[in-house]
Batch of 3 targets.
Target 1
Amino acid sequence: MNPKLKDLVIVESPAKAKTINRYLGSSYTVKASMGHVRDLPAAKLGVDVDDDFKPHYVVISGKRKVVKDLKDAASKAGDIYLAPDMDREGEAIAWHLANLIDKDKSRIKRVIFNEITERAIKEAFRSPTEIDMRKVDAQQARRVLDRLVGYKVSPLLWKVVHRRTSAGRVQSVAVRLICEREDEISKFVPTEYWTIDAEFTTPRGDVIKAALEKIGKAKAALGTAKEAADARDDIKSQSFSVLAVDQKEKRRNPRPPYITSTLQQDGARRIGLSARKTMAVAQALYEGIDLGDQGPVGLITYMRTDSIRVASDACDEARALIRSAYGDGYLPGTATKFRKPKSSQDAHEAIRPTDVSRTPDSVAPFLTKDQARLYRLVWERFLASQMAPAIYDATTVEIQGGRYIFKASGSVMKFDGFLKVYGEKPEDEEEKGIPRVEVGEPMGLAKIDANRHETEPPPRYTESSLIKELEDKGIGRPSTYATILSTIVERKYVEKIKGNALICTELGRTVLTILLRLFPDIFEVGFTARLEGQLDKIESGQDEWVKVIHDFYEPFRKDLENADKMRKELKGAVEEQVDEKCESCGRPMVKKWGRHGRFLACSGYPECKTTKPLEAEQVHVDARCPACGGEMVVRTGRYGKFLACKNYPACKGTQSVTLGVKCPECGEELLERRTKRGRIFFGCQGYPNCKFATWNRPAAQACPQCGYPVMVIKASSEKGNRLECPKCKSGAESQA
């Protein structure tokens, strides 16, 4: 190392660079690559299938200046330390950086750390390593596989459906799970069944509620109202006594610290964050938060992990805090260690606070609302994982009358243990005591009810339950779940409905039907899971990445050849003929897919280009065409909704759709618009002279605090819709 030159450190993000620079001091220059710097080209395949699938990488558009700055810094540096994240993707970024900034790579060193703290950073720099090419190869294999599928299959979808459709190797399997669950629900036929509940009185006057458990030696199974009524009437004639009493101590053990999937599940279930939002907030907590006098500090360990392992010093710190804050009674005799799941790669630790003494309350003033809530989840889950079990006194009583046996169960908490910190009870757990009774004591039948029930279909997936399903089936990896979910929603293959349930859209079902018909193996759940296992073998050195791609590509190539022959057949299958004639040429109209959904088009295309919205989608409004005076309907175009003459194409009169809300800046009407990527926003009709715009739907209500003439509707999963002033940010109860 040249002592006159500063060493260069390259990380992924500016936030991380700022935190690390503070720990390393003035002898290092820390710069950020801003994520990936090289990738396969966007406009072409970029994979040479005839040369062992050699990828052709290019500098990402918009990153040339970043790369130039890094090269300039490297030319003036001593050693070069590459410090992207420690997963496959981070290793690939390090490899790309090494290839771009130092041809002989003699100065390149790789540093890896699980947490951005002074201790961890300095330890990593004392023991630098080399780039792990097995991780790089595993990431290259994933990237090449996804590129082959996306760039070879998507053009087929363009020709059959429309150009905005695309095929993703893993995302399509997620869509399949959602669609198949919807099919299960639609085909489900509820089955009637009955239960019998009773209230018994003890000799001391106490009441015990119990449910019919057995009739004779068989489990009670009452399928009709008559069966239930007959059993109820027979029960009334019986004399009852206590058959058995079982009292025991029951322990409930804490859960392990979070891994990526469980953090995303609880992020959705407990604080209402999407998987993408959860990971973005966790990334910020990992990279570093400015804690005032302490400067930027990484608050949690690396958040992309499938390991529940925890460093021994972190366990010791947690145990010390538990002893001082809650007492020895809350501390197990030894540190708790959890059994490693079979599917875990165990590459690095579970998600935990970097310093457990930084309590949620102590750091909350420096965090956003979402950061504070997520940090509290991580902190509480980790601390609770090292605490003693909760202890309950559980009692089960069986009451018999003739051939009928009723059962009552209850439990009372004797010691709260880890629930002192991580106080969440299962939905089906109700704490209740059972009055004292003795075997053989007579019991009086005070009340009896027969209740009708129906079996229920399986629930729709939510983000939380879909992530769990993907994890259980071995589909994707911790770093991919958030992207999978956001992608299938953005592509409009899946949409969220009330309660955050995920349902398959008509477009999603159409695309999936085509994919499964053309490529039944690739988009099969088991195949996708096995492929993930092969990527793991590449990383562990058990397999070669080129061989894995070869084994995949040969059957895939044959499927592509067959698919190309079926294009016309498939196009006909998705174009549904309707009982309507073209207004221009008289030929039949057909339903087609376009970028904004289904529409009617003349079957004589391209000779006749007449199109119109589906009648069900033509929203009629109280407006007249400015050109011919005809009726207007709402249509959707490239930039959102607009009013069009119903007499189109004979008349092409149009008008903008207004919200009935005046622009607070100029008094013109506000409109609903779309960005080029399809995201809805609201802007002024007077654009470009007036540039007022907002992502939130405006409401014609003045701010009660500052008098601003418009407020916007802010959605909240916890409190529902509310109004907020875009100027002073004060809130009000929603009238929307």
Target 2
Amino acid sequence: MGKSLVVVESDAKSKTINRFLGKDFVVRASVGHIKNLPKNRIGVDIENNFEPEYITIRGRGKVLKELKRLAASSDTVFLATDPDREGEAIAHHLANEIKASNENIKRVLFHEITESAIQQAIQKPIPINNEMVEAQKARRVMDRLVGYKVSPFLWKTIYRGLSAGRVQSVALRLVCERDAEINAFQPQEYWTIEADFTSQKKEQFRSKLVKIGGEDPYIPNEQKAQEHQSLLQNLEYVVSDLKTKKVERRPFAPYTTSTLQQDGARKLGMTTKQIMAVAQQLYEGIDLPEGRVGLITYMRTDSTRLAKSAVEEVRQYIADNYGLDYVPTKPRFFKNKKSAQDAHEAIRPTSTKRSPKDMAPYLSPSQKKLYNLIWNRFLACQMSSAQLLQTVLEVTAGNYLFRTTGSIVQFKGFMQIYAVEKEDAEGNVIPKETKKGDEVLLKSINPQQHFTKPPPRFNESSLVKELDRLSIGRPSTYALIISTLLSRKYIEKEARTLMSTDLGVAVNNILTSQFPDIFNVGFTAQLEEELDQVESGEKDRKQVLDDFYTPFHDSIENAMDKQEEIKESLQETAEETCPKCGKELVVKWGRNGRFIACTGYPECRYTKPVEGEAEETDEKCDVCGAQMVVKVGRFGRFLACSKYPDCKSTKPFSTGIPCPEEGCDGNVIERRSRRGKVFFGCSNYPNCKFATWYRPVLKSCTQCGSPYMEERKTKAKGEHLYCPKCKATLQQASE
């Protein structure tokens, strides 16, 4: 038997696979796509069934030449690109290029990079899935049509260089609409009442007022709260109900791409882009003493299905390491979403013989964290349910009903290894020897003021969850969607939350007003469903593109007719005249944001930056002695002379706190990292390397005397001050 050629996508994967297949195989990488649409033209023949014009990517010619040479001297060519639509399209393009050198071409799918999985796949080759190729082609054409038709419209209405993506623009819309909802939100005051009671056995417990006259309590202000408090002080209280029941808490399904991104962002603080990059490394292979091995299954999947052999292996592992009580009677199965593709398994470790503890010496910190997360979720999904004892105690006085709910974990089950967020009921004290009909003594009434809160801003985890819920895009594209919006400066990240920028709002307003049916959540989700139907063979690619393009083309034509009107609507008058020609000045958009320009352009090219109301400071200019003011530039806040442009003196924005490093005479100033994130460092940098991500506050620590503390915010403690020296905290963010 002669040698066989195996073509994969990445060099890292080729090294791992080469070791498993041995000397009769030559493994090479295509280094991703070898063909793509041209960059300098639309590359889609709209009149000819939307046929795409694929050309060889610059730099891939050499790769193709080598693959053809190896194919000519091989008995068989195995195309082992990734097991998804993108991988199928790459395999299709490779087959078309290689078949002149060798027609014996077969497709193999590696769902995990382990010796047994690879050997099995080689023994069971399959044909290239033409329906998947057609679905990928339809998506690529659709995205190209939107990009090449809408982007020039944005150039003419805002400024050249902007771009619009079919799915990214809908994600932008979600962020903009959430921000608008937050900005328009009007908080409403309301009050709640809790009471402290003592049982007949002198046990204290707290209950919350849940009903007044059988209705949910509505206490709009302090006056009403005090009226209820006065009435409650003079009533007698009786335990009107006491129920205890067993509650079962089932484990979560194993990870899909979407849920892994959500948990990785929420629990590990990683970006979705980082999560997918690290998962790719774990899938392609890690160097271990026995050689390079893939530690997890394919990480682009929306299926919760698990292989029977993997379930049997993990059940045995649980029995051996935690005991038979932790193994449910039957294996667990989880329902997929309606739109899920079931070609892959869920994301799981490739073997329970490679525990996170054993793998730790061979993994980077980020690899270690993500592998541990995947490992725990996989084990937990096949463990016994947690058993809780839940007690509900109700206390009645007149027409008032108070309730206390408490729960105790009797058997941890899967919670032994997979932490879940505590419910309010957990930890509440329920008096042990109290029974229905007992009188209880009122100790105190505690009215509390609250205000309704707006919905929270999106973060990467919650945005991925929302995109997944609405079926916008594919889970494998979520990381790219978010990173694209950030790189285009349509959104920005502040303390892990995502916020729309002025530019993002302007782009969204234009797209949603001029193309309401295209950049629409329901329409985009429907297109995803239709692409899935192309993949399953239920729909024809041409028909799907026809149905999409006709209304889209009409929208473009209508928008182009109104582009000057739209452009003018974006301009604001600066309420000034040009100092050079006397014509009116207006606010325009440019590559670096908004600026003021003369309406006499191009004859008059006068421009100046938009200046907001400058915040005054007590500092004086070192050059001319005038007052310094706070301004905002591309690198954050800074101090500038109020006599600008006559005096162009500037200084870094200082927090007013001396550098805490011993022997340093610098001050702590506000700075920005290369990625735009605010941090605080010494003005004597690079001679002094002091830096912190948290805003320092000039307040001495009461525990150790540190001259400053830091503003921090956590779920557990909320806003508080933190001492970086002794780690003491104060429950206030500022005075």
Target 3
Amino acid sequence: MVAYCIQYTRVVHSVVMRLLLERLVFPGWRYALAGLVVVIAGGYFFFGHSGNLGATFSIAPGDFKEQVRVSGTVTAAKDVDLGFATSGRISGTYVKVGQHVGAGTVIAETENGDLIAMLAQKRSALDEAQANLASLEAGTRPEELAVASTAVTSAEAALVDAVQSAYTASDDAVHNKADTLFANPRTDPKLTFNTSAGIKGTVEQGRVAIEPVFTNWAQLIGTLSTANVADIAKRSQMYLMQVKAFLADMNLTINQGFPDTTTTTATLSSYSTTLATARTNVNTAATALTTNSTALDSAKKNLLLKQAGSTNESIAAKQAAVAAAVADVENAHAAITKTRVVAPFSGTVTRMDAKVGEIVSPTASLIGMQSDGLFQVETFVPEVTIARVAVGNPATTTLDAYGSSITFSTTVVAVDPAETVKDGVPTYKTTLSFLSADSRIRSGMTADVVMETGVLRNAIVIPAGAIGTKNGVSYVSIVDKGTATARTVTTGPSPAVGQAEIRSGLSAGDTILLAPVP
């Protein structure tokens, strides 16, 4: 227990020091620190423990909001200068000076037809990805199974025909064509023309050997059915190879033949033509047999695949495709949003310097608005997090006067492009507006603001205090069977105070110590 307390104290120290470093831009740090002490006091029971190793944390990827937490002061309602987030040519202005507009009204926009078309494409791709996922999760339809089963039946019938055709072509090639070149071909085959003595003996012995092949093959054909056609097709291919070898020897015999008193050159030429036809027929039958065997094998595999249904891996792949399509839609929508100036709150337009056809830059403020009596919050965001803050970011604000249980909805309406140095630290003045009037809000109140700047999707986020450093390399302590071992990790930007994103080194289901072992 002593070891646990020491390591747990390191977690406290890590987070407390982080809060102390942020006190310059977070005047409400005392309240956060007090709350942190309460949370840490119960940390042992919330996160669990692993013997004397200390408090542990189980890794579970998920979606985490990226937040920037600062404090500020409530100010009275005032004018706000608005501008475009990106460069472009103004395509429309939709309000006039003195006109009252509601929150969310598009005041002006730059040319964005290509972005709108891209958004439509991304939405179409998302619909397709969602449909594919739904189809995969629903499994194979009965109609698809029926089609796959029919394909197997058809392939079996086609292979039966191919086996029979192979036997017929081979029988014709030997018994009706090659045998015309022999005397007594089935009992004591002798060539009827002169040729090389060596090859003559080979083909006469080959003719003797090929006869049992047809005897055995004919017996197989007698038992042929769709149930055993795959096996018989394999054996038929072996018989075909023997027939093709015999016919090749016969062709060589004829090519080496020479005329004599009983055989003329014309006769040998006729033999050659007859044998060539026989070989062509056998080769064609052999090709058909191979093709149909392959087709049956493919049809059977397809049927088995459909009967098995979708695998977890294929569903996960489709889910990933949907997630990617969602991100694409969000990015396309965000790109369009940057081309528009939208009223951040209800109020009156006091200035409209934007003109159709004019090319604008993000640094120009062309439109002015005055809010309808809504209070604002002025705060100063430190340099390390200002890049994540943008006009339109939603935020949750609490006022010290009412405690953290009462929240007010706000939104970022302006971010100063130039820095303001506070106690030697570069900061950027950021203005937020309350979204609705409330009699409880008064000028000068201290406000704590949490701005939502994005979402880390399917990310691994852990307490920042669980990360240690050795020789400049970040690591965590992995707990496995009561033993802690160091594992190197790669971290990303902190999504929120006290949190750290892990880019690599951890996986779902891992258990780590909240205080890494030195």
